[in-house]
């Protein structure tokens, strides 16, 4: 199979840890060129993944013969880098959140539309094999009407010497913008429901970040009336993380423990009623794959077939608006309608 040539912009963090290792396993993609502002990082990633070209210049990267670019830089760098890639007609898989604000995210989307390039966003947890099984169950009505859901995604994130993630002007927000946004995306994707109203609280209990939260909780009123709860903490040690979600319907429930994260792990229980009214609980069996490989393969297929990205900018913009509503609700002390 002919492989689409990819470039990577920002290859020190998630790109090196997960996405490039996923990319090199993809059937239809080649990690051809890598770029990082730190030339040593770019060079070592090039060697590690057997890429052809490394540079510390975005312009030089975009002058290579590449079809698509994966952008995994700090959020404040996204807009300028997307614009440059779009100017070159290169399709773009952009990490979440798209921009510092949802307004910036909309500018990014509109620019890509104008330049006729496909823009996708990195909500890769949708592609966890067991999440796909859960989605199938919900779509065929196994759970009945969805009435409630809960999701939680945590880590331990002390004040870092490179403070971009914890400074609002560089990141767009704290733990809800960085981690909770995955829960928001996942619950909306799995249930097919959309948040219409948000109440949120944010705080700083453990870490003294410049101006973002280390803990946030939100309640979302969905378009069918169900209430969903999202929690995200930067102040819970990874080893006791407790990343989980539950979805309840009128006929059944899903409980997923450890599936939210960067590796296809975790256990999922499906509880339903049998015909005689007794309760039946089954473990959903699945074979683990690599979410990042699928993310790259699906986006590459979208480029080859000229279809919409598997995770669209519109979906990512809505996720970001929901997080912004959490912040607005915290400030105002009241709920925010979307
Ligand atoms: N989907 C996921 O699984 C996931 C996980 C973590 C982070 N992210 C997202 O990925 C993006 C990057 O996060 P991270 O954790 O990898 O950050 P990071 O700080 O760990 O790494 C960022 C890399 O970008 C480089 N960089 C900084 N400025 C640059 C510039 N102007 N041009 C090119 N390179 C530059 C840095 O040298 C570093 O190597 C963010 O949008 C973040 O929210 C996604």
Structure description:
- With 338 residues, this protein is of the alpha/beta class.
- The strands form 2 sheets. The protein has a 9-stranded mixed β-sheet with strand order 14-13-12-11-7-10-9-8-15.
- Strand 13 and strand 14 form a beta hairpin.
- Helix 1 crosses helix 9.
- The model has no long low-confidence stretch (mean pLDDT 97).
Radius of gyration: 20 Å
Helix content: 25-40%
Instruction: Report the structural category.
Output: alpha/beta
Number of helices: 10
Give the termini separation: 44 Å
Characterize the overall form. globular
Q: What is the percentage of strand-forming residues? A: 25-35%
Order of helices and strands: EHEHEHEHEHEHEHHEEEEEEEHHE
Q: What integer is the average pLDDT?
A: 97
Explain the layout of strands and helices.
Layout (H helix, E strand, L loop, with lengths): L3 E6 L4 H10 L5 E7 L3 H10 L4 E3 L2 H5 L5 E4 L6 H10 L3 E4 L7 H13 L4 E3 L7 H11 L6 E9 L13 H4 L3 H17 L3 E9 L11 E8 L4 E7 L10 E6 L2 E6 L9 E7 L5 E5 L7 H15 L7 H20 L3 E2 L1
Parallel strand pairs: 1-2, 1-4, 2-3, 4-5, 5-6, 7-10
Antiparallel strand pairs: 7-11, 8-9, 8-15, 9-10, 11-12, 12-13, 13-14
Helix pairs in contact: 1-9, 4-5, 5-10, 8-10
Features:
single chain; 338 residues; alpha/beta; six-stranded parallel β-sheet; 25% strand; globular; binds nicotinamide-adenine-dinucleotide
